[in-house]
Amino acid sequence: MKPMKPMKRKVLGPVLTSASRLGLPAGLRADFSASLVVFLIAVPLSTGIAVASGVPVELGLITGIVGGLLTGLLPGSSLQVSGPAAGLTALVYEAVREYGVGALGILVLATGVVQVAMGLLRMGRWFRAVSAAVVQGMLAGIGVVLISGQLYRLADANAPSGGLEKLGGLALLLTETLESPSALVALAVGSGTVAVLALWPRWRRGARALPAPLAAVALATAAVTALDLPVDRVRVNGLLAAVEPPDGSDFFRLGEMGVLGTVLAFALIASAEALFGAAAVDRMHPGRRTDYDRELIAQGAGNTVCGMLGALPMTTVVVRSSANVRAGARTKASRVLHGLWLLVFATLLPWALEAIPVAALAGVLVHSGWKLLPGRELGRLWQDHRGEAAVLLATTTAIVVTNLFEGVVIGLALATFKVAWEMSQVRVETVRAGDGFVRARVIGNATFLRLPKLLDELESLTRSGRDVVELDLRGLRYMDRACRQALDDWAGRHTVLFEGGGMMAV
């Protein structure tokens, strides 16, 4: 992918003009303008993710503020933006349902500590070794779970727990929605939001003035307010009232196996999403590349502070990061300023959130989940690499059936098995030596995965009425202990002479 060119000046004309009037240098003007664009995207996304996670909307804003003001200042990457991400929504929702909102602080704090430790141990680079099919499957699984859950919120209904339960209840949801006038109104608001999100970028003049998520939520809010529609709206209690730091008793919960498993899941998924997002953002611009270990430490520091405030976990948000690059950001100043604008908004204008319909935020997340699905990429992958496509589909299915953490573990196991299977290519070539004798040469990598095939081929030589006079092992690049023992036994039963027997000592 070629580096993406920064937005031309005319795309952000009004904002750039305002920045120019401030007398700012050209580089800072670009960062100032980009920060406003990212801020306008961050408000609806942060509040929507908080609602979908089952926590107060202020906690999503707090995570965005910390992601800008703290993580934005730390070394690691320059243009990617951190905040609450849709990828962790399902996991956070299940954790809140299981342990309560009060336990969120200790979960996120411990997650941050684990991430800092991983960064100090220089484990960040290892995330680059994860199969691309597993990453795509993880994103697709997140998309399916996110969409299936937010479809209920489109109709102002409560979603059941579990991916399969959400999918299985969609038919009943449709029936109940058709029978409820208020649910139909909410569905119309949410569906209209999705339609605006899909169509807004096609109107170039409008897209230059406002980002699509803000335009969609603003139009939905204006319609609901003007018509006084009977739909659920966001509830706001104030920024300080939402802060709930963990107390001493919460730390004892880290001894519970379930809590430790949740922390590990948070740490691995948040780290993977952050570093995969960093790799994607690096491909969008020609500037300095991300230092994966430092970025992992920065993400960990941010999550540690978020945990102290009882907020949502943070990771890289690709939507905000790509908007930051497209808006012409040059340094990390843009992401720091975006955090400052979020702080000002949450402090001075929290009442503005109370007018937003929940169905509109659900529409934003349905659209975000849809963009996580592979779509055409899956078709091309199936044509060229069916094994990779199978791993992708299996990972997605496992996430929907179980949960995000277990699904990714299953995907990694399948990807590892696929590589081991493909690397275990072995064949037997034979040469006639006369008088019914043949010479057999084994070529490739002899592992236990292909041992049955190897023995079948060797046995077929003796069943044909011929005797094997020589077994040449010099064509083997690798042979494990199981194959060595099996070939020893087979050669002993058929009085075969080894050629290149030194290969047996593996």
From TrEMBL:
Principal location class: membrane
Membrane-spanning segments: 33-52, 59-79, 99-121, 133-152, 182-200, 259-281, 340-370, 390-417
Domain SLC26A/SulP transporter positions: 28-395
Mode of membrane association: Multi-pass membrane protein
InterPro entries: SLC26A/SulP_dom, SLC26A/SulP_fam
Superkingdom: Bacteria
Keyword hit for Transmembrane: yes
Subcellular location: Membrane
Keyword terms: Membrane, Transmembrane, Transmembrane helix
Protein name: SulP family inorganic anion transporter
Organism of this sequence: Streptomyces luteireticuli
Native organism taxonomy: Bacteria, Bacillati, Actinomycetota, Actinomycetes, Kitasatosporales
